[in-house]
Design brief:
By secondary structure, the protein is of the alpha/beta class. The protein contains 17 helices and 24 strands. It folds into three domains: 235 residues, P-loop containing nucleotide triphosphate hydrolases (Rossmann fold, 3-Layer(aba) Sandwich), CATH 3.40.50.300; 183 residues, P-loop containing nucleotide triphosphate hydrolases (Rossmann fold, 3-Layer(aba) Sandwich); 71 residues, no CATH class. β9, α6 and β10 form a beta-alpha-beta unit. The longest helix is centred in the middle third of the chain and has 16 residues.
């Protein structure tokens, strides 16, 4: 039977304890098309793609390839059918070199011996052909996340996959890397490969997708041609209500200085030089100050130095008038909330329940503890309130294991916990990474509300739209130094890009050079 559809997922149902993740979903992928899968956090997008890749078995429904029913019991079956997947959280062995990661599980051998020269030649050819530059001998733990994603894409190409699944591929990339990835995806489609592309970012979907299928709460809302729709219509389909795509905020009324940073230096963990060099700035009560820059220019180390995750090698940090340069993380937490960049490493204990994670910094307070025992009822009540207020979706409510929640809902849980702590300073690093438009709208409104309550907010973001929309002042970081201080009203994306790339630098007097 001849069909234009290379893959058909028909009436797929997948259940987990307490939740129907996919409820009778039908999805059809045409040959040579880029098909986007759009939906809120926890709508069932990653689950549906995990069914196609053989990581989960559905309770009902069938999968067809080129019109023939196929059984996909595991990822090896998927690979044999030409299906490859780049996961949201990369599946790489960090201590292995790049080349070993690419060929792992698909090694070519001759008389029992590994043919690495042949493999290297093939990978180098693919790398050049698609502009996916990687250092094949570098260890994965030593390369950037953007480079790690290229490794994941090369893994698929090395296996000659024709159906490519990208799960939130741009969540950890810089604007420049996103443009490169979009160009690569279009090149794949031109060659006849078929792409399923999970994303929350409406701009990207409108730019590269041919069609969009929208999921909401586990059900399929519909499939539309991209050329026949717009961002507002898609966001309405996704969330079920009109969404404010622009941040609505009044003028900032800055008060006293909450955070004063003077001559801060933080050593790099991978090189012998400073990742942060002689950085000075302040954040006042009632303003949002944003650190903008291309990933890897010292923003992470700056945040580590401020929050106590890394020791500063020089400089002074003053919070609410108190020198905290040598204070412990817990001491700094008395006046500071921290929404970390890496939600798995620094944000959550994945094998704790959602309610345990929500009281991580507060379980010793009298509200939650008595004579050394945790008041379970109070913790449950508190967790329920935050879950409802921030719309954190999880199969079993407060007792859901954090590990089993979708990435976006893990992020919402961290934001709920940190904002609710009501501290003088909120350090928010990539707070909307991996969130859908409805959740982004809510988080942006929360941060503006915190600002208007008189809290100081230090925002670190790679999303230029977020930088321009949300900040009252912008500090641009390049190679570990602050190279510009701007306001959204007096700059534009092009000028911001020049400062971020190091092509322009502001003198100490504040004039562009």
């Amino acid at each position: 039977m001849q069909t234009d559809n290379v893959i058909e997922m028909l009436h797929i149902t997948k259940e987990f304890p307490g939740i129907v993740a996919n409820d009778d979903i039908t999805l059809q992928l045409r040959r040579g098309e880029i098909h986007a899968l759009l939906g809120e956090n926890g709508a069932g997008k990653s689950t549906l793609m995990s069914v196609l890749f053989g990581l989960y078995q559905p309770e009902a429904g069938e999968i067809r390839k080129n019109g023939q029913v196929v059984k996909i019991h595991n990822p090896n079956d998927a690979t044999a059918l030409g299906i490859g997947m780049v996961h949201q959280h990369f599946k790489l062995v960090e201590v292995f070199p790049v080349l070993d990661n690419i060929i792992l599980g698909a090694e070519s051998t001759k008389m029992g011996f590994l043919q690495k020269k042949e493999a290297r030649r093939k990978v180098e050819e693919l790398s050049q052909r698609y502009g996916l530059k990687v250092d094949l001998d570098a260890r994965v733990e030593d390369i950037t996340v953007g480079m790690q994603q290229r490794v994941e894409i090369l893994k698929m190409l090395y296996r000659d996959n024709e159906i490519l699944i990208f799960d939130e591929p741009t969540a950890v990339l810089t604007p420049q890397e996103i443009d490169e990835l979009m160009a690569t995806m279009k090149e794949f489609a031109r060659e006849g490969k078929s792409i399923l592309f999970i994303s929350h970012k409406l701009n990207e979907i409108m730019a590269v997708a041919d069609r969009v299928t929208v999921l909401r709460k586990g059900k399929c809302v519909g499939t539309v041609e991209t050329k026949d729709t717009d961002k507002q219509s898609l966001s309405n389909m996704m969330v079920g209500r009109p969404v404010q795509l622009e941040v609505v905020k009044g003028k900032a009324k800055p008060g006293e200085t909450v955070l004063q940073v003077e001559g801060l230096c933080v050593r790099s963990s991978t090189h012998k030089r400073d990742a942060v060099h002689d950085v000075s700035f302040q954040v006042r009560a009632g303003e949002i100050v944003c650190i903008a820059g291309i990933d890897g220019n010292g923003q992470s180390e700056l945040v580590y130095g401020l929050t106590g995750l890394e020791k500063a090698s020089a400089g002074r940090v003053t919070l609410c008038g108190r020198d905290i340069s040598h204070a412990s993380i817990r001491q700094r937490g008395h006046n500071m909330s921290h929404i970390p960049e890496d939600r798995h490493k620094h944000g959550l204990i994945l094998d704790f329940t959602l309610e345990q994670n929500l009281v991580l910094q507060r379980f010793q307070e009298p509200e939650f503890e008595h004579l050394g025992f945790i008041k379970q009822g109070a913790v449950r009540q508190y967790a329920q309130r935050l879950i409802e207020q921030y719309d954190v979706r999880s199969g079993q409510g407060p007792v859901t294991m954090a590990r089993s929640m979708s990435g976006g809902n893990q992020q919402k849980a961290i934001i709920a916990r940190e904002v609710d702590r009501d501290k003088a300073l909120i350090v928010a690093v990539q707070p909307t990474r991996g969130l859908d438009v409805g959740a982004i709208e809510y988080i942006h409104n929360q941060l503006v509300a915190e600002r208007d309550k008189g809290h100081g907010i230090l925002l670190v973001s790679l999303e230029l739209d977020e930088v321009m929309n949300l900040s009252d002042r912008i500090l641009v970081m390049y190679e570990g130094e602050i190279v510009a201080e701007l306001t959204p009203e007096e700059t534009n994306l092009q000028e911001l890009g020049l400062y971020m790339a190091g092509a322009k630098r502001m003198s100490k007097e504040g004039k562009g050079a």
